[in-house]
Amino acid sequence: MGKTSIIVGASSDIGKAVLMTLDGAGNQFIAHGCHNVAALENMRSSMQGNLHVLGADLSDAGSCEAFIAEATTLCNSPDHLVFAQAQRLKLTRFKKLSRQQILEQLDVQMMSSMMIAKAFLPAMVKRGNARVVFVLSSVTLGMPPAAMADYNIAKYAQLGLMRSLAAEFGTKGVRVNAVSPSMVDTPFLQDIPNNMVIQNAAAHPMRRNASSEEVASTVAFLLSDGAEYINGVNLSVTGGECV
Prior knowledge:
The protein has helices at residues 13-22, 37-43, 61-74, 99-127, 149-169, 194-203, 212-223, and strands at 4-8, 28-33, 50-55, 80-83, 130-135, 174-181, 234-237. With 243 residues, it is of the alpha/beta class. A 7-stranded parallel beta sheet has the order 3-2-1-4-5-6-7, sandwiched between helices. Strand 4, helix 4 and strand 5 (130-135) form a beta-alpha-beta unit. Helix 1 (13-22) crosses helix 7 (212-223), helix 3 runs parallel beside helix 4 and helix 4 runs parallel beside helix 5. The protein is globular. 40% of the residues are buried.
């Protein structure tokens, strides 16, 4: 029997990799996108599963509610719920950081996740054997990097939400976990100086940054039956950089 997955932030490179990793005949995907919805539409012809693409600006509560309403008409009780959305990463020193920047990160990453989880989890509890996975970041593992306070705050807020959901729903047949990758080679880094990306790869124990596919395969594991006894875990996907 096929599985239904709602993937928030599916238009990101990691989100698209999760789609391709989970793809299979009989599976259904409700894929959220914001700035790159066309890329998701273009994937439809190459996928075995049934792909529904929904656009929404998750920084806007009304747009998020409209996404929830449309997704609910397609499936109100998914097997999987994946949160892979994030604002594009920009380096900003704390003294120049505005209240609005922090609120935008929180709206996109934490508040939208809370709204979507609240809409779907009750039905997921009734169906049983459901999975929720958050794509966080290695900033939640040890000391986070400087000049990224808005992003760091939002990821820690998501971590708190993940653990809260795991505590409340883990006894009700829903497993809630997260993956926290180190730097991943994607366009998400395009506003980061290239020399920083190169230096990070050179200093890494594996002498390279992670790939979207490596993150996606870890997400797929946490969504699988093999992860039945895992709940509330923030799994490091850092190639030994964070242990």
